[in-house]
Amino acid sequence: MDLSWPHGIELPDRSLTVVIGPPAVPITGINQCRELSRYPFLYVCSNFSRILTHIHRTVRYSVRRGFTQDQVMTIVEESTETVVFIEHDPSLYEDDRRLVRDIAVRLRQLAEAQAIVIVYSPVTDVFIRQTASRAHQIYAFLPYERIVPPPRPLSTGRPATRSRQATLPSFLFGPARDPVEGVDLGGGLLEVIEDPVCVLSDLPDK
User: Fold this and answer.
1) Burial degree of 118 (CB within 10 A; 0-12, 13-18, 19+)
2) pLDDT, tens digit only, all 206 positions of the chain
3) Domain with 136 in it: what CATH number?
4) Measured between alpha carbons, how far is 140 from 26 in angstroms, rounded to an integer?
């Protein structure tokens, strides 16, 4: 069971994929992937989301929210779904990095055991680097020159973590095919790098 998203994104069965870029990339992917509704689909986020409010009502999925690293680890360990999408929350790892590596390792194990696992972030940080180093593939749609918008709070009764604004640099690394339709990439494709893990250190954190 493989999935295909627009813009050349291929999601093979039992694989861990990291997607870095504007929220329009996963929003388009989730909304336009008809095959997604055939499988149990888990959406994991924290106390805010840039994506959830834009997912069509026709998409069937369940949501679990992890407000701490421990809760995210528990969600990953308990997952039995065929497709697991994780919207990364950088604030969970700003002051405490003790589970960064463990969660990244468990995501790889989950993918190889049973699932298509997608980790999405508009920016890079220590968690994305750790996860990318264990990913089967990485899609980064950059340059992403517009300011990352503040996320929309979810109705959880908890105060939403304030998002830092960030501007991403001029990189596009693969595997990738074409620039994202309908998304301003600040000048288009500048460079395709065959081995993206080797250049993760060149990308600034949020």
Assistant:
1) buried
2) 899 998 788 999 999 999 988 888 899 999 999 889 899 999 999 988 999 999 998 899 999 999 999 999 999 999 999 999 999 999 898 888 889 999 999 999 999 999 999 999 988 888 998 998 899 998 887 554 433 444 444 544 444 443 333 333 323 333 333 333 333 333 333 233 333 443 344 444 44
3) 3.40.50.300
4) 12
pTM for this entry:
0.73
Number of structural domains the chain divides into: 1
Range(s) of the domain holding residue 112: 3-202
Please answer whether residues 81 and 40 qualify as being in contact, where contact means their C-beta atoms are separated by less than 8 angstroms.
yes
Q: How far apart are CA 99 and CA 121, in angstroms?
A: 18
Token pair, residue 17, equals: 């994929």
CB 154 within 8 A of CB 160: yes
CA dist 123 to 56, 169, 205, Å?
Answer: 24, 10, 7
